[in-house]
Amino acid sequence: MTTADATAAQPLSTSERIIVALDVETAAEARQILSELNGKVGAFKIGLQLFTAAGPEFVKEIASSGVKVFLDLKFHDIPTTVAKAGVEAAKLGVWMFNVHAVGGSEMMARTATEVGEFCEENSIAKPLVIGVTVLTSSNSDTLKETGCDGDVEQQVVKLARLAHSNGLGGVVASPQEVLAIRATVADKNFIIVTPGIRPITATTDDQKRVTTIREAIANGSDYVVIGRPITQATDRIAAVEALIAEVETD
Prior knowledge:
Helix content: 40-55%
CATH superfamily: Aldolase class I
Number of helices: 13
Strand content: 5-15%
Oligomer: single chain
CATH class: Alpha Beta
């Protein structure tokens, strides 16, 4: 059974669906958040800011302690380079990492294959490899600037279908496109990870395609990535509990 199969086989609680984004400047800040929230949410995301500041050894330290790490570096390069980077991510023990789906079929297929082969040969857990579709900071105008004439939903669905056909375990997409992805990719094991989640009263900051956690999960998101509404809260545990209540309260 693959990691994706195992994930889909067990119903997830609301807390397990929450991935807290450790978008902070230092490992010390990240450790403080981890000390407060480990065991109260499903996983933690380490992105470009913290990875650049703290390095792969910090990722390995956190993953080896049993914390589920989503390594959010959005690999996008020639197929050989991305596949090798994916293998290095697997060596760190991460639960999941992503690549840009616009990197194309060969890049995604080689990464999925080589990571799978390495993990099997070395008897280590294979991380989920997922594809980034269209960033939640982008809209139709952004796509047009970069030469894509289709609307956001069309582009997201096209990339989700491409990711699935090339062996990836899921995609990152805004909650606004989840229903369209589910209608196009029938594989129940294909996960959707949704950033751009905000409480009803929160600012959208630099995100354009956002929604609430309740709406995202109702639409079919498997996991939601939440940063500032939790990490910048005065009481982080209370912020998590409020988000859970938003989903579970009728």
